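To fix ideas, we now present one chain and its tokenised fold:
***
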Amino acid sequence: MLKIQRITVKKNERALLLRNGDFERVLHSGRHWLFAGTDQLRVETFALEQPAFTHGLADYLMAQEPAVVAAEFLRVELSETEAGLRSENGVLVEILPPGTRRLYWKGLVDVSVQVVDLQAGAELPAALAARLTQTQLRQRSVSGLNGVLQVQVPAGQCALLTIDGKVDRLLQAGSHAFWKFGRSIAVELVDLRLQAVEVSGQDIMTRDKVSLRLNLSATYRHTDVLRAFAQLQKPAEHLYRELQFALRAAVGTRTLDELLENKTVIDDVVTAHMAAKLQPFGMVVESVGVKDIVLPGEMKAILTQVVQAEKQAQANVIRRREETAATRSLLNTAKVMEDNPVALRMKELETLERVAERIDKISVFGGLDQVLNGLVKMR
């Protein structure tokens, strides 16, 4: 039986006519009368608002129907060293990875693809990097951004760029973007400002076998970031270890008394040690200070007893000095009175006056001489 079918294709659509499962032609908008005969016809429609042609016949059309592809589609074929920037109506919507082979319907949406040579360099041009940053603020995001590494370096910092495991260069403050296709890209932020490091809870034994616990604080900065990371895997960890070694060298070679008498000796020794050790690695220590020196409980008690004994001895020396001075003064007074009876008499009267101040009532018999030489009755 012979059959005729009527197919309607909308203005915003395209259709593929398949006869017995094989591609026959592309149907544009309008009404189409299709003579089927004894064949089986199938029509598949596609909305032009979605320009990407994702169909099993895409490879066949590119290989066997070049005229149809040229008339109906935008053809994209990227090599292994190329990436693509796909725009729709002038707006970037997708980043195509290397090796992409796709077809996009022509007509309703103006699709364009900018081909980028990945061998020209890993870094994206500044204009393109800024464009990608701006697209993140749009309601419709760009797909395929996982193929681009975007880096924002804050002020006061830099970034160490590593490509395929090799340090490439330093990135200054600002926005940067790099292709990740075909290469391994890594970025590590490095603070160029003064940084602090704490070395806490270090148990160290002095030369006279006294165990101390010390907490040290230091500040440092990078003077040559490339040299530091070229020679050291983790410069901050190397700095911490060197501070530990310097602290042990300062404490372990001195007695407890030496450390207590000169508390800045640790700072001076550590500073000198670090200056020599860090200079070849592009780092410098700006300041070092011991925050705490914690003694064991037994040693605290012993030191307390020592301090008490020292203070007691000083007090005894002062007391003996004052007693000697008082005795010498009494001796001088006695010599004066021995040679001067009037002075002796005045001293007696002064003594009597002091006694009278403490007594409510005095009874005197026999005149003033009796008060001084005789009986004094006090009530």
